[in-house]
Amino acid sequence: MGQTGFNEIMASDAESEAAPGKLQLGPMDQFSRFTGLDTRLLAMLGALVVIWVVLNVMTNGIFLTPRNLYNLAVQSSVVGVMATGMVLVIVARHIDLSVGSVLGFLGMCIAFLQVEIFPLGAAWNWPATILVGLFLGALVGVWQGSWVAYGGVPAFVVTLGGLLMFRGGAFMITDGRTVAPLDPTYQLLGGGIDGSIGATASLTLGLLAAAAVAFFSLKARAKRARFGFPMKPLWAELMMIVVWSALIIGFVLVMNAYTKPRSDIARGIPVPVLIMLGVVIVMTFVTRFTKFGRYVFAMGGNPEAAALSGINVKRTTVMIFVVMGMLCAIAAVITTARLNAGTNSMGTLAELNVIAAAVIGGTSLAGGLGTIPGAILGAVIMQSLDNGMVLLGVSSAVRQIVIGLVLVAAVWFDVVYNRNRR
Amino acid sequence: MTRPLVEMRNISKRFGGVQAVDDVSVDLYPGEVVGLLGHNGAGKSTLIKMLAGAYPCDSGEIYVNGERAVIETPRDARSFGIETIYQTLALADNLDAPANLFLGRELMTAFGTLDDDAMEHEARAVLHRLNPNFTNIKDPVKNMSGGQRQSVAIARAILFNAKILIMDEPTAALGPQETAMVSELIQQLKKEGIGIFLISHDLHDVFDLSDRVSVMKNGRLVGTRQTAKVTKDEVLGMIILGKLPEEETPEDLAALH
Lengths: 422, 257
Known about the structure:
The complex is a heterodimer. In chain A, about 75% of the residues lie in helices and about 0% in strands.
């Protein structure tokens, strides 16, 4: 293109822009550039480490025992599963206040079907109830998403209505009666005494995961090299692979160090945690490698631009709520399996923990920003505080106050962080 | 003369009680720049958004290459080779340049996943052509300068072999140097046979670049004239008075000065 003048103009513009930009690059930014993790996620990771060390000192070393970390992992999984969906919802500038009630409603549906409708003892009973639960979760998503997308009712109102409706629905299924006991195989999904996969399987899975991290990192790097794109240095890439592998294997070893009661049989990774990790992988894939994920972020960044680009904003909005509903179903499966019962109060106030986890994990309430691993980190931070305070014998009233303060502080951090970026 | 690239015939659009566009007809030939002028609120942007598929029209017809074109969504418009650079640029600020360039028509791998590397490759090529110093294309667009953002918006429009380009106030947010850059780009695209609708409320921006000007006032088309055959004063008269030069009285003209 014959446009020398234009090139010169843009060149001078680029130079004047680049100079101050380079000066601002602090050590934290450089580190994050090498590792590919954003500064905010690193800050969260730092906060988690501090919280763990402090709680461990305060509890005289009880907090960082395999037994407590095992429980912590199981406790985090329900909130973690739903928080991955909440990331999409909040990124698209919506909110879902109904997730706790939807969990309760779907959990009651699953338990009721399993105990009172489908034949007891049939091998297909519990898998069928899960499928029905997922389907109903999707329907709940269509219902709420359609009100938001096509009805134009703000998600805040639709899901506030849902919070009441589905809690009422959970009660109506059995008139408030608790449904129990559930199928013994189904109970394994909740991570009880036998609800983990054992030492050998855990270690194998850990090694496979570490190998997969190495394989995909190097494969992505090879592809960038083929295109001749700028890359982070090889040592940084290898260091990240080593760090990830160490974290994965470390996690497996901790889970293997916790034994079943009155025996030395290692438990290994709990099934609900495995479910959560599966959800994390799928949801990370969805956000990073599918059109749907790209559109959710585009809608959050600039809804008008998304619509003008030909994105079907309404259908995508419904899809977001469908995903959220199905994740509530998965969380309902873990909850009921863990309780070995369906009760109409399951998931009460879970929406607050889920939203808090997403926000603490770096999902911006202004929309357009958020990550799935961040939300899991947020869920673990919340659960760590709660778990640690229980160990310290803090009353539930004080725990609520602390968690509430943490949520406000996290959003305040988000506001300050975004202000400083400008 | 060749067949018009675009004809918009008797287009009308109403928003509630406001007749935003009232029975307007304009056309555009290949390699031609038509300036669309008028005050803020004259209906220029509304007219052009109907061509871009942002709003459906209430009545009237659009013809592309002589054939009736039904344009109800931005996707429809794109399928007819109509690309739009909006005044607001319409970029998703949180996404990087390649994601913005390909928004709504992402390149996919054989597995049906986003092919980010291929998109980055194409984006680097087109942005490098527009601006050789543009290296931070993987940053979110919100971290970019005004000129870089403009480059992204322009690159998105020309990447997919547009035949008809709509530029809505392309220079409104730019300094004099960047405005010169846009002018040069328009000349270049003209040579390639692309038809361009240039929308502006600033007469001087448009006058040098366009072959014809169409002036709107209060939702109605005042008239269309060859730029070479009218003076700036006459066009100004059309914009402000809403009358064609031959209808103007000496008193009207006196009022302008």
